[in-house]
Amino acid sequence: MPVWGRKAAAAPAAESAFARSMFAPSAAPAGTTFVPSSRLGRERVRIFRLLAGARLFMAVMLLGWLVVLPMLQAQSHAQQAAVAMPGYWLALTYLVQTALSLWWSFRDSGRLAWQVLIAISFDLLAFTALQFTAGYPAREFSLIYALPVLAAGIYGTLPLTLLVAALVTLILLSNALLALWGGGSEADQRLLNAAFVGMAYFAVALLTWQLSQRLARQEARASASESMARRQMALNQRVIQAQHDGVMVVDGHMVLEALNPAAQHLLDLPWSDAVTARWIGGRRALRELPSAEVVRREIERMATEGEEELEVQVRTATGRRLLLRLSTLEGLPGGVGYLIVLQDLREIDARIQQEKLAAMGRLVASVAHEIRNPLGAIGQANQLATEFAADPLQLERLHHLIGQNVERINRTVEDVLELGRAGTREVGLLPSAPLLRELHAEFEGTDVGRIALFIQDDAAQIRFDALHLRRVLVNLLSNARRYASNRPQAIEMRQLGVRAVREIEVSNDGPLIDAELRAQLFEPFRTTSSRGVGLGLYISHELCQRNGARLLYRTAHEGTPQQRGSFVIQITPGNAP
N or C: which terminus of the chain carries fewer CB neighbours within 10 A? Predict the structure, then answer.
């Protein structure tokens, strides 16, 4: 089998101008094929069927022309039959071939390149034979060669396109030369006309090939984009379907565009409505779904108020409590859309309750462990007190030990009770600079210059409960004073932010907290000090969270003599005044 008749691997995506043919092996050099695979897409199959239909229509017209034209000429019936008989058979054969070609194009679209080559070859042979044997003036056949030239330009490579145009030109010139040698009338004019028509066919062939090449590149890009879009749509659909929360997408006309099974379950949509809503082309308006009426009202309210996001608790017609998170989707083709995420509040409450129970279990276990150690020491001291009843010094030591452990148990209980008292209060705006100056004077004491204070804006305000903020700062300053050196400015307090407090930082030049301990820094009963119970930072962290802030630990100049560790109260942007 010739090279152009073998199948090959698919062309690489980067090749667009001359994609490798499906008829050439992958190692074949570019330009050795007749029909590149980039010209064999789905659209080209449809175009070839139109071309096959045009060829069939042309065959019918040729046969009719060969039948009607002799009747109009002044010749006897015998002369007409003798002259037109070869043309009749040729036209009839061409009619049969075009009909088979049209049938083949519908029957087997996988061999389109073979069909194109056979159609071009048969057109050239049939038209040439008609031109030389039909016995009519050759100018009648000059324009009929447009079909094979166009087919070569649409489907073929540039060499095949130029080859077909050259063959057509040679056929026209050959017919004109035969007329010139035979001494026919107007032979010179026919030769000149053949040359001009051949040049026109070359121009048409080049123009058709160039347009087809550009169309092939556009089709390749469109096919790649379509494939990526289909893949992205499939991935998005898989992600939406796998979501535990309900997900809905609604357009600006309140028409449901997407719905996952979780949303169907949470809204108690009937199965038929949900399936219809998910079908392509079967979109449903929210007003047609009574179960989704509560969603439609919230979307309309959000659009009326001009909000881009909304979070609201609602109750459906069936009594289910839902948390709706609505977001406006701007810049979508076709107009604005709305994304709705639905969550069952019963499940949220159950998860919160489980987390609370788990946290309480950890807290109770930690408290029990913290209390057991000093209770053991108290019990042991009580036993020793009976043995050393006659020794006042030993009794005093044991009483002091019991007092220390009782104080330790009392601090643990007080810290735990503080967690219960630190509920959410009505938080207002307050300036933090006076509190910082008060604490600076209180903690500095006789160590003048040990604590440095920097306030960027005295009038800056913070949204924080005053008692909570004081408790957090007292904890942080107590830790800093415990570990800092006695050098001037060993401890620094910094308030940053103009008009609104952005963060408050308490740093010291003491040893940095080990990297492996930083992940557990704000967990309860995590301490490296024998004098603490490990609840100070945990309580401070909880108080910051309850006031819409974060407590962070940062280091600066780590590994150098100037290294410093700092605790930062960072105000979240949504909680800034």
Answer: N
**Distances from the Cα of 409 to the Cα of 113, 385, 402, 413, angstroms:** 91, 20, 11, 6
Domains along the chain? 3-223 (no CATH), 244-344 (3.30.450.20), 349-421 (1.10.287.130), 429-575 (3.30.565.10)
Q: How far apart are CA 19 and CA 481, in angstroms?
A: 76
Q: What's the pTM value of the predicted model, to 2 decimals?
A: 0.41
Q: What is the pLDDT of residues 282-340, one digit of tens each?
A: 567 778 778 788 888 888 888 888 888 888 888 888 888 888 889 988 888 778 888 88
Within a 10 A sphere around the Cβ of 18, how many other Cβ atoms?
A: 16
Q: Could you list the beta-strand ranges (E) of 234-351.
A: 246-251, 255-259, 284-285, 309-315, 321-329, 337-344
Q: Which of 385-394, 417-426, 446-455 has the lowest mean pLDDT?
A: 417-426
Taking only the tens place, the pLDDT of each residue in 17-37 is: 333 333 443 334 443 467 766
* Residue that is written with structure tokens 């049969």 in the block: 96
Closest CA to 23 of 42, 2, 41, 47: 2
CA distance 108 to 417: 84
What is the DSSP pairing of strand 491-496 with strand 451-455? parallel
Structure token digits, residue 89: 């058979």
Q: Which two tokens stand for residue 413?
A: 């209980």
**Reading across the β-sheet that carries 246-251, which strands appear in turn?**
284-285, 255-259, 246-251, 337-344, 321-329, 309-315
